[in-house]
Amino acid sequence: MAEEPEETATIDIEALEREGDIAADYIEGLLDIADFDGDIDMDVEGDRALVSVVGATLKELIGERGEVLEALQELTRLAVHRTTGTRSRLMLDIGGYRESRRKVLRKLGTEVANEVKRTGRAKELNPMTPFERKVVHDAVAAAGLHSESEGEEPSRYVVVYPVD
Fold first, then answer.
1. DSSP class of 21
2. Which of 143, 57, 65 is nearest to 98 (CA)?
3. How is 52-105 classified by DSSP, letter by letter?
4. Are strands 157-161 and 123-124 parallel, antiparallel or unpaired?
5. Prediction pTM value
6. pLDDT, tens digit only, all 164 positions of the chain
7. CB-based burial label for 18 (10 Å; 0-12, 13-18, 19+)
8. Residue 117 to residue 144: CA distance in whole angstroms
9. pLDDT in the model for residue 11
10. Are 98 and 56 a contacting pair, CB within 8 Å?
């Protein structure tokens, strides 16, 4: 008996690489205008392009709690959309901020999940960006619990629920 092939979404690596190239050119232009030094790395991670800027003096491009980074990411996505005509899910990282934030948020998600398991009571977290909420949701799911985002932007937050 022949097995049927599994249905999987095809990822267009060439299109994602093109998004990365467009984004890198856009970010490079911004760095030149603002007179910031930084090297740009491009990659494809899962189903999205990833553009990273690394350099010595990039805190101004991250901002407090990543607000400037989020704004730059949206501007970069708009630049990609303007060129390609399609919506981009591109992820921008500057100075490794997102990766270090991801580690902190995974730990938070796991710790809150363990607390909710122990107490049996739902727990609300502080407001987070969409990126931050996604990381927490993934950590909570990996711990075997359920979480949801509630509220309105920019005050949207995660609630972790115990197993029924």
1. H
2. 65
3. EEE-SS-HHHH-GGGHHHHHHHHHHHHHHHHHHSS----EEEETTHHHHHHHHH
4. antiparallel
5. 0.79
6. 444 444 445 888 899 999 999 999 999 999 999 888 889 999 998 889 999 998 766 888 999 888 899 999 999 999 999 999 999 999 999 999 998 999 999 999 999 999 999 999 999 999 998 889 999 999 999 999 999 999 998 899 999 999 87
7. middle
8. 9
9. 80
10. no
Report the SS3 class of residue 132. helix
**Cα gap 77→70, rounded to integer Å:** 11
Residues in the chain, total: 164
What secondary structure letter does DSSP report for 123?
E
Question: Which residues partner with 160 through β-bridges?
Answer: 123, 147
Please list, in sequence order, all residues whose beta carbon lies within 8 angstroms of the beta carbon of residue 38, skipping any fewer than 6 positions away: 31, 53, 54, 55, 58, 94
Q: What is the pLDDT of residue 1?
A: 47
Measured in whole angstroms, the distance separating CA 10 from the mean position of its chain's CA atoms is: 21
**Cα(144)–Cα(106) distance, rounded to whole angstroms?**
14
